[in-house]
């Protein structure tokens, strides 16, 4: 089975329960998808292994043509893709357009173009006397069958998006999307089939956690995006199988606002990126540290902007600014963080309550008078909250920003670019922006990954973002071929002395 479109996802649910897919903004069940059994995943893997060699043999040009056709398909079907994403995630139309559709379109072109360069054979030079005159090469070969296990918050960007470089490298891929948001993956699988992707090369394995575990047991490498707790389990299972794994896990992204910052720009970024996708973004703004001289001004501006956010059921372009939460248990987590903070002395300046009767809602919320022992400052809230903390100076801001098990991203705001850059370099995060936030993720040339175990291991984007889906192969080709090399048996005193003199001369020359 290669792919199943959303509208036909229930046709094969014979003998096994299906999974309902809700619109989290309304609570309405909008589809049913198959909860695949272990044997079904094994069959997907068997078909993928049969199809992969021919896909690899197409070469970069052949694979690139399919990817570029898919880029055009994505833009031709933009409204359908955005509507599907919005319906199963509850996010605003523009959130899906900006962070998902635009990313996907750019990624197809990027990896089609960059794969030949990033995976080109490399000539290697060696100073070893024993390989003089020989040709040394480093090659990148597709790893074979890649399993991608995606999250629910970005079903295109952080789920399907990881499949694109894996396919560009010549792998077959099985994608296990979140059972909360599988419809986007199924729709894009349909697009790939229409764009000429050979049967069996790409498959979507819909289902629960057992389905994901079955994928791990069948593939040659795993790319997982999700919570730190689940990432640990995935890492253990991959270690047991001795297969490579790349993990993009949690974040608690700090924003440092220095006293000389452009307060209006900083407050716009804080309000927008803390609430973008209803706060369900790993690389966002999740906690603020603001130097005392501008603290009050910053808080007032952020509160005003957050209070003005229009939250509601997405109904097309321009209808709302922020939609609902996507994952039902997340509402309880957000509520717990806010209530606990208030019980310990924090103050809600706007928001702070659950929303509508139907769907999964929490109001855009600004918290002040917080301290660093509160869950809202230390745990991943993953919801529409922004706690803001006053600091006396930049050293305190850096110390508190680094006081976290996470290290995914961070942001620094200051008019003094040299000073801001110096601060950025002291933050323990895999990606840091200066006078900006989040938008760095769209620069696919720039690696993106965590700097601490809680945020995972491995990187997306850049050369490493496709090389991780490959095995390295070293080639040594002898161009001068005597019958026997000088160092071979039988050993003789004369040849040993000659070899010793040569080694001494050679190593003196290395100094």
Automatic annotation (TrEMBL):
Identify this protein by name. Aldehyde dehydrogenase
Q: Which family is it part of? A: Belongs to the aldehyde dehydrogenase family.
Asked if Cytoplasm is a keyword of the record, the answer is: no
Check the record and name the InterPro entries matching this protein.
Answer: Ald_DH/histidinol_DH, Ald_DH_C, Ald_DH_CS_GLU, Ald_DH_N, Aldehyde_DH_dom, Aldehyde_DH_NAD(P)
Ranges of compositional bias, category Polar residues: 1-13
- Domain (Aldehyde dehydrogenase): residue spans on this chain: 18-474
Name the source organism: [Mycobacterium] vasticus
Xref: SUPFAM superfamilies: ALDH-like (SSF53720)
> Which residue stretches belong to region Disordered?
1-20
**What Pfam families does UniProt report for this protein, alphabetically?**
Aldedh (PF00171)
Query: Is Oxidoreductase tagged as a keyword?
Result: yes
**Catalytic residues (UniProt):** 248
**Which keywords describe this protein according to UniProt?**
Oxidoreductase
């Amino acid at each position: 089975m290669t792919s199943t479109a959303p509208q036909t996802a229930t046709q094969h649910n014979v003998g096994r329960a299906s999974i309902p897919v809700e619109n989290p903004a309304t609570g309405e069940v909008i589809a049913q998808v198959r909860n695949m059994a272990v044997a079904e995943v094994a069959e997907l893997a068997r078909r993928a292994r049969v199809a992969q060699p021919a896909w690899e043999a197409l070469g970069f040009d052949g694979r690139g043509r399919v990817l570029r056709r898919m880029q055009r398909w994505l833009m031709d079907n933009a409204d359908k893709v955005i509507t599907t994403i919005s319906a199963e995630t509850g996010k605003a139309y523009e959130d899906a357009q900006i962070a998902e559709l635009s990313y996907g379109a750019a990624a197809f072109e990027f990896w089609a173009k960059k794969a030949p360069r990033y995976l080109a054979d490399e000539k290697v030079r060696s100073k070893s006397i024993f390989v003089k005159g020989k040709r040394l090469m480093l090659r990148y070969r597709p790893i074979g069958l890649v399993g991608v296990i995606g999250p629910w918050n970005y079903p295109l960007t952080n789920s399907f998006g990881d499949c694109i470089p894996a396919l560009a490298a010549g792998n077959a891929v099985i994608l296990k999307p979140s059972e909360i948001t599988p419809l986007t993956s199924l729709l894009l699988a349909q697009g790939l089939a229409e764009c000429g992707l050979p049967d069996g090369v790409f498959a979507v394995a819909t289902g629960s956690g057992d389905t994901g575990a079955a994928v791990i047991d069948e593939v040659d490498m795993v790319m997982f995006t999700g919570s730190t707790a689940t990432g640990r389990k995935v890492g253990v299972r991959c270690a047991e199988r001795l297969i490579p794994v790349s993990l993009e896990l949690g974040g608690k992204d700090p924003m440092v606002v220095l006293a000389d910052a452009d307060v209006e720009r900083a407050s716009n970024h804080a309000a927008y990126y803390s609430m973008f996708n209803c706060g369900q973004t790993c690389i966002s703004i999740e906690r603020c540290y603001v130097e005392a001289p501008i603290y009050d001004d910053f808080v007032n501006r952020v509160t005003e902007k957050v209070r003005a956010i229009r939250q509601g059921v997405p109904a097309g372009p321009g209808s709302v600014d922020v939609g609902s939460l996507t994952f039902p248990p997340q509402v309880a987590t957000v509520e717990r963080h806010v209530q606990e903070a208030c019980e310990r002395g924090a103050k809600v300046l706007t928001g702070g309550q659950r929303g509508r009767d139907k769907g999964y809602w929490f109001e855009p919320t600004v918290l002040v008078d917080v301290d660093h022992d509160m869950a809202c400052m230390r745990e991943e809230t993953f919801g529409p909250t922004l706690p803001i903390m006053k600091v006396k100076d930049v050293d305190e801001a850096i110390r508190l920003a680094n006081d976290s098990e996470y290290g995914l991203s961070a942001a620094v705001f200051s008019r003094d670019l040299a000073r801001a850059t110096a601060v950025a370099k002291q933050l323990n995060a895999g990606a840091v922006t200066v006078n900006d936030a989040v938008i760095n993720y769209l620069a696919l040339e720039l690696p993106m990954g965590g700097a601490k175990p809680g945020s995972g291991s491995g990187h997306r984007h850049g050369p490493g973002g496709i090389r991780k889906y490959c095995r390295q192969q070293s080639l040594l080709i002898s161009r001068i071929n005597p019958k026997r090399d000088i160092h071979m048996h039988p050993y003789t005193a004369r040849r040993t002395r000659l070899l010793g003199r040569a080694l001494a001369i050679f190593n003196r020359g290395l100094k």
